[in-house]
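Help wanted!
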Amino acid sequence: MSSRDMILEAVQRNQPPAAPLPEVPLFDDAAEPPLPRFKASLERMGGKLAEPSADADLAAWVAERYSGLRVLCSAVPEIAGTRRIEAAQAPKELEDVELAITRAAFAVAETGSIYLSERELIVNALGYLTQHLLVLLDPADIVGNLHHAFARPEFAEARYSVLMSGPSATADIEGVLIHGAQGVRSLTVALVAK
Amino acid sequence: MKRIDHAEASSHFIAETEHEAFHDRRLWDLRQKRDRESQTIPEWQALRDLASAIKEHTLTHLAGYLEQFEAKAKANGVQVHWALDAEEHNRIVHDILAARAVRTLVKSKSMLTEECELRPYLERRGIEVVETDLGERIQQLDDEPPSHIVVPAVHKLRGDVADVFTRTLGTDALNDDPHYLSEQQRVKTRPYFLKAEAGMTGGNFAVAETGGVVVCTNEGNADLSANVPPLFIASVGIEKLVPRLADLAVFVRLLSRSALGSPITQYTSHFRSPRDGGEMHIVLVDNGRAERLGMEKFWTSLKCIRCGACMNTCPVYRRSGGLSYGAVYSGPIGIILNPTHDLRKYSSLPFASTLNGSCTNVCPVKINIHEQIYHWRRIIAEHNQLPFVKKAAMKMAGRLLASPKMYRRSINVTDAAIEHLPRFLLYSRFNAWGRQREVPATPDQTFHAWYLKNRRMDGKTPS
Ligand code: SF4
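Answered by r_m:
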């Protein structure tokens, strides 16, 4: 008998009497407007919210905001960057990226999270090897809470999904909060309609 | 196997007064953050009820969900392996790595791989294993196991970390600023992400309907480990299954709030299918879980989502440190998990508790932790695994406590009785961890007397 069959057989034999599966409500709190809540949650998690004006030249806005950075790798049509993610062959090539730019499929007000997958990142490592991350978000794409987030089709469709909530963080030494532990040192979400 | 003497081990931790005081404060702070955060969610108790019910449903239908998960994962292009025990798990992982000539493996924190002792197994076979979570890396470099399941190096102060890093990474011996130390680790770990041929993570959840494994971290090191090297392996205990994405929402809402008092971890990642040009494996591990499922009093411990809240709230854990439990899992959850692996070795652990029930009250999946601790005490007593000193003290206490009437009479004799009774029981050399404690001042009235005066409506005397 294979280990698989032995495990399944033992589990089957030992399963306690059946307990029912509850329905999970969406716990709607529709009263709260999503954008202010998203902003507060994101800032709490250490992320920043930016609101470039609707008629701004985005490339110029990025150049000014990140004036010290040289290698800008973009995955969005709105901003050219100095390098296109489509040109990357392997994750390791992204090692020198200082700013990565992508667009979130949606965001979650409750937790300040943005959703990214291989569709938005093209090369998943883009979101982690870069030093800083700029994510465009259409304010119409903010859902209220995690129940709504996990009800979205993306999780079942994408190969890799992440709810990213602020920059990489650690408090492993005496509880001192430090951003940029391993992944990105800063995360900025810019409200830009699609 | 040598019996762990928790009281003896904790006395070393307690002797380091500065460490003990900080440890106590830091974990209590996490507990308070958890309280504040949970109070912002009106449906908090409803979420705990749901989480408990979903886990009980899943565990009572586990075989079916495991098969569904496997079928989905395979359809997603993932290679699924099954491991009966730690040894088979380690062999499977090594075979995958060896077949691809992997020399360096980057790893994110996983209690399951600690449980299986994977790291020494691979290192003995010439594979370099690099822990990438900061706390776990500190512990690896100091050649110590994690002392807490969420914050592995919480028992160390900054000076200890500086010492470890100076010794192993060559950092400035005079600089113990946590920002500096953390940055040093970032800089020294990054080359490993780039050179490693394989990455590995554990799994917080496995979703049957998608075949995906969910990993929650704050550093993003799991995402680096999984997304940079071409080969990705996730090891997952069979109890980590949840049926649907809708269920996952409940657990993600509870996990980081219970663990650290933050609304969510910085990264909550769902790995469903290998990326282009990549390879993905999932190892489903039993290692005693199927057997525990058949233990009437203890199977619900399999609901645990490893949030650590029961540890943060436990007065014994906070004052004795995780390493004193001499086991992979420490604190209240460790007390109820470890004896299933080795009753004799861990027979002192169920006594490292005041049975105050605080662990049960904070547990997001509503495991009756303190009741299970009590059941373990009974089993240990029945199996005659009580350490001698506990047996002697218990026998003396037993004569008084066996009869509620006799107990009441004895403490009613004089107002000062309670000072004599616990002093004899708690402070004698027969109870090692009573040595560091003081009992609260005697209330003017016993609870029983108060109850009789204020609440006795039915005319009956409680026995
Ligand atoms: S037993 Fe409950 S409180 Fe303790 S780690 Fe597990 S889920 Fe968290």
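OP: Thanks! One thing I noticed: Residues B 304-310, 333, 362-365, 367, 369 surround iron/sulfur cluster (CB under 6 Å).
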